[in-house]
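Quick one, tokens below:
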């Protein structure tokens, strides 16, 4: 996200626009909690994880009263345009704000390690989180192979299996558990047994945490009832949400940050900038959270073939 903030600031300054940063998301917007964003503020941040502006979940913004206070704050600050980096919740909030008040132009930029936002192939943060997952799988594979063990590696992804799917393909995992699909412990156990019967000595199951972080411990117990195999569970959790962003995330953040400023200058509002099949795409904010981004079926097929 910092690469994106940096790009927004530099693109804005290049066009002689005044720009400020809102601290802590919608909480800061309601409170008028701002920081000056000049060239100094965004110096040496492109390699930092997290966000220099900080973020929060804002219960107030869920209420009409909260959103009207945000609109009043926008008016007080004299803002003509707002660039919002976030996911489903951020864009739903922005749509409600636009419905409640005649306010500044709103342009969204997709940021989510879950990569679950409709209107873009990739979201800022996904690539870094996915690389973290692959790195973990690679490391755990050393123990799995050496100790002939079954491992359950749990990655994030509340409603989306993208992290698990791409991490699983890149890490050469045997099994995938994702929120988009029903899991059959019996079938999974049989497939793992089949792998061992043809000479495998270890296996890795990549699990998306879904609604229940820690679900892998339960899965491991259930599989144990079918297979006489020593297994271990590793939950990556918030490890995936930090650390230096990858090249792809820095480039995507930079591209979408500049594009967001250009979108505002072109008079766009109520849309999210994204990238679809290598082209810039502008999607109405409502669609970004009302439509479900489908899992990539080609990648799902590839996983099935390669994990056999
Ligand atoms: O929505 C992004 C996400 O990282 C999910 O993958 C994960 O399930 C959730 O956020 C974790 O949220 P929190 O940081 O509030 O525990």
């Amino acid at each position: 996200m910092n690469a994106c903030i940096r790009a927004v600031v530099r693109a804005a300054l290049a066009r002689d626009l005044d720009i400020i940063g809102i601290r802590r998301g919608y909480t800061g917007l309601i409170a008028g909690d701002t920081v000056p964003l000049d060239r100094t503020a965004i110096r040496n941040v492109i390699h930092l994880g997290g966000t220099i502006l900080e973020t929060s979940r804002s219960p107030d913004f869920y209420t009409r009263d909260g959103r009207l206070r945000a609109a009043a704050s926008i008016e007080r600050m004299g803002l003509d345009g707002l660039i919002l980096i976030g996911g489903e919740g951020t864009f739903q909030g922005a749509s409600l704000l636009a419905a409640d008040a005649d306010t500044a132009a709103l342009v969204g930029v997709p940021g989510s390690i879950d990569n679950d936002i409709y209107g873009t192939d990739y979201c800022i943060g996904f690539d870094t989180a996915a690389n973290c997952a692959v790195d973990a799988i690679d490391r755990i594979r050393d123990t799995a192979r050496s100790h002939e063990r079954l491992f359950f590696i749990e990655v994030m992804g509340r409603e989306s299996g993208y992290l698990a799917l791409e991490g699983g393909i890149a890490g050469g995992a045997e099994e995938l558990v994702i929120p988009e699909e029903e899991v059959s412990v019996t079938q999974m156990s049989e497939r793992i047994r089949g792998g061992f019967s043809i000479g495998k000595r270890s296996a890795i199951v990549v699990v998306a945490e879904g609604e229940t972080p820690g679900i892998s411990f339960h899965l491991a117990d259930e599989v144990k009832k079918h297979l006489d195999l020593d297994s271990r569970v590793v939950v990556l959790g918030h490890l995936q949400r930090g650390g230096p962003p990858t090249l792809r995330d820095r480039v995507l953040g930079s591209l979408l940050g500049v594009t967001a400023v250009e979108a505002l200058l072109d008079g766009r509002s109520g849309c999210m900038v994204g990238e679809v099949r290598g082209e810039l795409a502008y999607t109405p904010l409502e669609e970004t959270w009302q439509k479900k981004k489908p899992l990539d079926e080609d990648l799902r097929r590839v996983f099935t073939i390669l994990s056999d």
